[in-house]
Amino acid sequence: MIGSLRGTVLERNAPTHVLVEVAGVGYIVAVTPRVFGELEPTTACFLYIHHQVREDAQTLFGFLTREERDSFQILIAAHGVGPAMAMAILATHSPKGLQNIVITSDLAALTMVPGVGKKTAERLLVELRGKFDMLDLPSISGAESQASSSLGDLREALVGLGYDNEEIRSVLSELNPATDATLEKVLRDALQILGARRA
Questions:
Q1: pLDDT digits (tens, 9 = 90+) for 4-28
Q2: Domains of the chain
Q3: What is the reported pTM?
Q4: Could you check whether the bond before residue 83 is cis, i.e. omega within 30 degrees of 0?
């Protein structure tokens, strides 16, 4: 089983696969869009790997940190969560963010993930409770918790303004609000982005 790869990025196949050469052998690795953006062609890289073996195929899933890989393994161990959904969750939320979502039972944040409906999110919040504690993730500061709460309020505000989940997911991926940002400030920034897209 392959647990990690250290080599050179040869190709990027947008938006979810990279070809990594290690000692003359090329490995196709599935990654999240965020990881994809970090791996430039011809650059050296190190990836933690989850190696999935099936009767008909073998797939390598690559992550920049051990916490991401371990979070992926926790997710696919949950009922009804396959690799595709686990990667979608990690593309939307960091391990630390996931831990906070589970602790606060933030159903809205989890349903922002493509393919995760309300019932699935409710089940996951129950199944994942306590699972991320073993990862020894950095504690979540009060400011970061407040920022997470502001984003939850932002989601509700955008829904109330008539934006659909896809538009909201997209704008949230672009926003990087300061931990002390007010809802009004974040909402104004989000509406500017959405307005520019619809123009």
A1: 999 999 999 877 899 999 999 999 9
A2: 4-63 (2.40.50.140), 67-135 (1.10.150.20), 142-193 (1.10.8)
A3: 0.73
A4: no
